[in-house]
Amino acid sequence: LIHCLIMNTIKAVKNAIVCLVLLPRFLMAAVMFWLLDFLCIRKRVFFRMEQEGDAIDPPLCISDSNRLFSVESLKAVWHGHKLDFLKAAHLGHGAPNTEVVQLGDQRRSRILDYAKEKRPLILNFGSFVQQNADIADSIVVYIEEAHPSDGWMSTDAPYQIPKHQCLEDRLNAAQLMHLEVPGCQVVVDSMENSSSAAYGAFFDRLYILQEGRIVYQGDRGPEGYRISELRDWLSHYRQRMEKPSDLVIHV
Ligand SMILES: *[C@@H]1O[C@H](CO)[C@@H](O)[C@H](O)[C@H]1NC(C)=O
User: Fold this and answer.
1) 12-71: per-residue pLDDT in tens?
2) What atom of ligand 1 comes closest to residue 143's alpha carbon?
3) What is the pLDDT of residue 244?
4) Per the count of CB atoms within 10 A, which of 58, 67, 203, 205 is most buried?
């Protein structure tokens, strides 16, 4: 009984610490959302981001009719921050080898099964695909929906998909996506959402793995989902191919 009590206390303390650490950034995000619901501010902020950003990156587009500040959106933001904070994936460290399910034959496999010897493996927890087949392999890992039709609904989402209740729902939803990215291996996260948790991948995120390690870790999406960083990493890599001692390339 005492052992149980101690374990519960440790768990409660850990939760409290996580909440305390996350609270300031969550409140910042909430204020930002509230401000962005004033359309004049939203237009200005997005215009500025577009000016400063790289043209290759997917633009943040939110139509005027979509409100950002809501219970569902804040819940999703909290969830994303929490996953990011507790993720196991860190630059330069071993890549979590979580279980995924292959689209098509529904075979269970693991992330690192897709890595081929020394070739970089792009781990894409998003839907913008850039082909780099000459020097890298890539897989799209479809995780929980960022904008489920029964959660933080968005009319800007290409499809209206409810929260996945079972693996079949998730596979069906991924199937829709697969049609959009022909020629790219698509896998789905397990229903325990273990890849999303290990990589802090919600809403979307980019990674590059090589020889079992994380050699590029993008920021939390959508703001941090930058195809331009991926492109830069790969072009550096292409240049340094003759010097295989470089394991981590900072961009
Ligand atoms: C995984 O995500 C789905 C939403 O797609 C959710 O319904 C489910 O409860 C999550 N599973 C766990 C173990 O948190």
Assistant:
1) 999 999 999 999 999 999 999 999 999 999 999 988 988 888 888 888 878 888 899 999
2) 5
3) 59
4) 205
CA-to-CA dists, residue 203 to 104, 130, 149, 199, angstroms: 24, 19, 15, 11
Token pair of 130, please? 């850039």
Query: Is 123 contained in some domain?
Result: yes
Residue 145 Cα to ligand 1 midpoint, Å, equals 10
Atom of ligand 1 nearest to the CA of 192: 13
Atom of ligand 1 nearest to the CA of 170: 5
What's the one-letter identity of residue 93?
Answer: H
Q: Is residue 246 part of a domain?
A: no
Rounded Cα distance between 50 and 57, Å, is 9
Q: Which domain holds residue 44?
A: 2-239
Using a 6 Å CB cutoff, which residues line ligand 1? 144-145, 163-164, 191-193
Ligand 1 center to 66 CA (angstroms)? 24
Count of domains for the chain: 1
Give Cα 247 distance to the centre of its chain. Answer: 23
- The verdict on whether omega for the bond into residue 222 sits within 30 degrees of 0, i.e. cis, is yes
What are the pLDDT digits (tens) for 176-192? 876 666 667 899 999 99
The count of residues in the chain is 251
Where residue 219 sits, what CATH number does that domain have?
3.40.30.10
- Nearest CA owner, ligand 1 atom 14: 192
